[in-house]
Write the structure tokens for this entry.
Amino acid sequence: MRALVADEGVVLWGRVVNLHRALNTLLHADIRAATGLDGTEFEFLLRLARFPGPRTHASMVAARMGYSSAGTTKLVARLEDKGVIRRERDPQDGRAFRVALTDAGQAALRAGLKAHIPRLDAEMINRLTAAQRRQLQDLLRRIDPGETTATPRRETQ
């Protein structure tokens, strides 16, 4: 049993989970204080803003978040009720919805990022050199299943 719990992958994953949990708690508190949005709502706005063009399919944003269609529908409805996104039927596909940030959504995103970035700088960015940050980006890109450049783990003999 000791060998299993000390497995390199298990230990590394534990570090990732601990880092995520600790930072998420701080970052979500900052975002809620600045915008009134929860972390998932803010993440949707942030990911939506990264798409080219003024609007995109809600399902595409949600897919990048790992959300199901039922979860997406509820999330989009909440954000629309809060006035931070606008939803419209896709004229090419009447079953799909396109979403866009409203002016209030852009303001919330801006306010959230103004709270988010200093915390990220203090807790993560400033603790690493520029070379270490590039290396971390490269390493995460290699193992991120959402990246097309992800490299599968090699089996060891």
The chain has one domain: 9-126. The beta strands are 56-57, 85-89, 97-101. The two ends are 20 Å apart (CA to CA).
